[in-house]
Amino acid sequence: MDEIEFFVGPGIGLNYGNMFIENYDDDNVTNRRLSKFIYSVGVGVNHSFTNRITGSLRYCYEKKGTRSSLNHPLNPSNDNTREIVESNYSYYYSTISSNFQFFPTRDRSYFLTTGLFYSFLMNINGHVDVAYSPPTFPANSGDFKGKFWYQLADDGGIIGSTFIPGTNSFEDRDYGFSIGIGKKFQLGNMKFITIQVIDHLSLGRVYNDEIP
To answer: Is the pTM of this model over 0.70?
Structure first.
């Protein structure tokens, strides 16, 4: 073990490739994945195998989540009012990860990273903002702990919805691979800032298949 690190940092989750929030657009309904603020804080140990290869073991508490916007006709048979529902879900995980960093340059400022992660779901929060166009009805919003599902008719109107409270509709484990690139900016002998782009390739599912 060459060093112990403490880290904290914000990020932007792009929901790229999120199989649970599909981008689609037809004659009646538009649904879009949106970016989301995330963060992680934790501790890790690093060991340099060579000047170009470093291994690390980390534990962190992290905020992930999904954010999407659903635009559909409120009452297709009677008027042209559209309802815009923006759903924002935050998932809080306790995560253990093992990674290798590869440094292509001598100063070790740029790196490639790959590894494995295993996460335990600790908590979830949901928030929804509802607006109308034209503003026939007042906008409203609310917070909740759980998951909403909407059932849409062929004409885009909502014909049913389901709410599962708490974490019952979510899997309590997530695991998979991670790959990324980054750059370190040295601030001193013991401090540095890292900017990186990471793709977490989950092999699990966020939602519990046993819950309808």
So the answer is: yes
